[in-house]
Amino acid sequence: MTKIETSALETKSAGPGDDVSEAFAEFMASFEAFKAENDDRLRQIETRSAADVLTTEKVGRIEDALDRQKKTLDQLVLKRARPAYGREEGPTVDLERKEAFEAYMRSGDDRALRSLDTKAMSVGSGQDGGYLVPDETEAAIGRRLTALSPIRSIASVRQVSTAVLKKPFAISGPATGWVAETVSRPQTNTPTLAELQFPAMEIYAMPAATPSLLEDAAVDLDQWISAEVESAFAEQEGAAFVAGDGINKPKGFLDHDTVDEANWSWGEIGYVATGAAGALPASNPSDRLIDLVYALKAGYRQNASWVMNRKTQAVIRKIRDADGNYMWQPPAAPGSRAMLMGFPLVEAEDMPDIAADATAIAFGDFNRGYLVVDRTGVRVLRDPYSVKPYVLFYTTKRVGGGVQDFDAIKLMKFSES
Questions:
Q1: Range of the domain at 37
Q2: Strands of 12-163, DSSP E
Q3: How far is the C-alpha of 7 from the C-alpha of 81, rounded, in Å?
Q4: Looking at the 3D structure of the chain, how many domains does it have?
Q5: Mean pLDDT of the chain, nearest integer
Q6: How far is CA 208 from each of CA 232, 317, 362, rounded to the nearest angstrom?
Q7: Among candidates 21, 40, 41, 7, which has minimal Cα distance to 331?
């Protein structure tokens, strides 16, 4: 058995001097160590019907180190992409609105904003005021949410200016047929249409600032507010896009009715059963993953992704195919995704853990299958009174979401049937 110094696998703290390339090299080295130890564990199972306890514990420790190193690597990549809080004026910045918004943020002086924004009150709630952030700040929040929110990063995103997006779809298309060039065309049947609705619900965050931060003229408050709200927005979005019930929040793809793929119909999400309650089958578990891939039509597979949480990924990481190759492969470069059977793997912590009857794995073309609706405009309401001496910034945006193509997403259900 290969001797591994587990202390060498510990994750380094993410400080300013951390190097992305070094962190990626450590992650890859840990993955090679994991493969060696897991191969030894599998050989022990084949020869003794059970793995040595020490070997199993060592594999677990290396897996924990892998997860920590991957998290650190993702944070470093994200940190490198995040702008500093210092001032940077680009050529496209609306300086008049930026200066007016900054005056409101720093001192509460909203006179300039009121002259620029005649529609400051939020829709449907006259008492809930606020001012729109500059367009550049809204765009920065959107870009960061795409990087942080796992489902948003692979879904279709549409900007709207209304409270509800209504999208028609054809239940039955018009009758078609072949005809000769000079033969008259018979009248076709009228298609049957239905309508999907995607209401935009309000999501909020309330970062706090100290007086010294607001008095520091070197701090760009636009960048500060976008950095402060991004994690809160991403966390709430992630949970809603996966399992939201559609009540005051988007409807997640797991909240729809599910049905065995053999009996699939529009309006339901098809699933493939593992054949074992709360687990993959002990024999040839990779076959179930292959079945799930080919439950998806070819047109959807071209842009498909896996979606699962960290614990499920740890189980999948141990699986090898018939030739002994690991089906899970690490990212090819910092910032890229791990691959499973040639398809990118998106880690979404809001996916359920493996358990009896749980749909812990999703596979599909989420760009065609799931729609995120962003209503334009992010509003900020300054509150210097509630938690003196701190100043709260009640920040809201409107987001909706739901399945738009029920044939584009398939699930794996950990059940006998």
A1: 15-81
A2: 131-132, 156-160
A3: 30
A4: 2
A5: 83
A6: 13, 41, 37
A7: 21
